[in-house]
Amino acid sequence: MNELNFVVDSAKEAFEKALTPADLENAKALFLGKSGRITELMKGMAALPVDEKKSRGAAINLAKQAIEAALNSRRQALADAELQIQLQAEALDVTLPGRQRGQGGLHPVSITLERIEAIFGSMGFEVAQGPEIETDWFNFTALNTPEDHPARSMHDTFYVEGGSVSAPNLLRTHTSPMQIRHAVQHVKQHRAAAEAGQPSVGLFSGSMPEIRVIAPGRTYRVDSDATHSPMFHQCEGLWIGENVSFKDLKFVFTDFCRTFFESDDLVLRFRPSFFPFTEPSAEIDIQFQTGPLAGRWLEVAGSGQVHPNVIRNMGLDPEKYIGFAFGMGPDRLTMLRYGVNDLRLFFDGDIRFLSQFQ
Ligand code: DAH
Q1: What is the pLDDT of residues 46-76, one digit of tens each?
Q2: Which of 28, 60, 133, 290 has the fewest CB atoms nearer than 10 Å to its CB?
């Protein structure tokens, strides 16, 4: 029996010493192989008397089973160790931040346009949109700027195909044509409703609902330098009613500027000017009292009381209806708000510039 124990112990020791599966298989051959120790012990039984054979055989079998068990447990241990090494080598640091897909964002001028719409929306203004290719009528004539009027030369116009020889179509040079387009539509809707016996729908009661609208959008002029781009943005404003005065313009525009720039430290100046479609007319300048731009007068809009001829072209009686209009530059407002000094940066599409506004 001691001899068998010794064989089992030697096998266990040999298996423990095997550091790889291949070593282990070699060690196995020494004990369980065709000419291994167990096989030899079996063969040695042939010489034993029959009555000893039985107990000897059982003992050898026990030894064999013990060796096989040791072998299996060593096999498992080696496989586990190997798996452990592999796991470590291929370890993933799941706490590392993933590689993200680049995220887009709104263009700074779009952010400004959204702010303008929200602020005027809160003051009860509708938002209207119109075509960028305009007729001569809406862009000039209806706005009290007839052919050969010197004010036309203030606009360096891009003309396009269409229209007539004397009045070709054009890329709108300002958003002011939307004053006429929106008002005409508004008046038409109101008259159709009245004819159908329906009550006036709109902001205020009275014979005609008031017109209160802003019209943001792209505009075009033949012009290009650090503060001019051939494509730029404007936002028109119009408020027409039976009793709308310059005082309302001052209140609305002051309130807008203070909300837009998030500052009450802001003074407005209405500087007399000329536009064919308003009388009187004024440029609106703002002055910050604090911050990097403090003390400078900055022009942000043209404005005025809508000219009687324009009221007439809207389909309204200038003896009865009165109001104001303004046209401002969202690009300029964006430059002032963020301290950008070159307008062209907005339209170059350089992601390094644009991503700073996210
Ligand atoms: N359309 C003018 C321009 O582009 C700006 C303007 C001035 C618009 C006075 C107005 C206004 O509505 O009343 O220079």
Answers
A1: 888 888 888 889 999 999 999 999 999 999 9
A2: 290
- Going by the DSSP 8-state scheme, the letter that residue 62 receives in this structure is H
For the beta carbon of residue 208, count every other beta carbon within 10 angstroms: 21
291-350 pLDDT per residue, tens: 888 999 999 999 999 999 999 999 999 999 999 999 999 999 999 999 999 999 999 999
Q: Which domain holds residue 58?
A: 2-89
Rg (CA), the chain: 45
Whether the predicted pLDDT of 203 surpasses 50 = no
For residue 236, what are the β-bridge partners?
215, 327
Task: Please compute the mean of the pLDDT values over residues 71-96 and round it to a whole number.
Answer: 92
Cα-to-centroid distance, 196 and ligand 1 (Å): 36
Can you tell me the distance from the alpha carbon of 124 to that of 202, in angstroms, rounded to the nearest whole number?
11
Site to probe by mutation for ligand 1, drawn from 134, 156, 174 as the one with most ligand atoms within 8 Å of Cβ, is 174
Q: What is the CATH number of the domain that holds 145?
A: 3.30.930.10
Q: Are 141 and 62 in a shared domain? A: no
Q: Is the CB of 283 under 6 A from ligand 1?
A: no
> Taking 50 as the threshold, does the pLDDT of residue 147 lie above it?
yes
Do residue 253 and residue 224 come from a single domain? yes
CA distance 222 to 157: 6
Q: What amino acid is encoded at 59 in this protein?
A: A
Total count of domains within the chain = 2
What's the 47 CA to ligand 1 centre distance in angstroms? Answer: 124
Dig out the tokens for 322 from the structure. 């009165």
- Residue 268 pairs with which residues in a beta bridge? 286
- Asked, as a colleague might, if the bond just before 49 is cis with ω within 30 of 0, I would say no
Highest mean pLDDT among 148-152, 219-223, 225-229, 233-237: 233-237
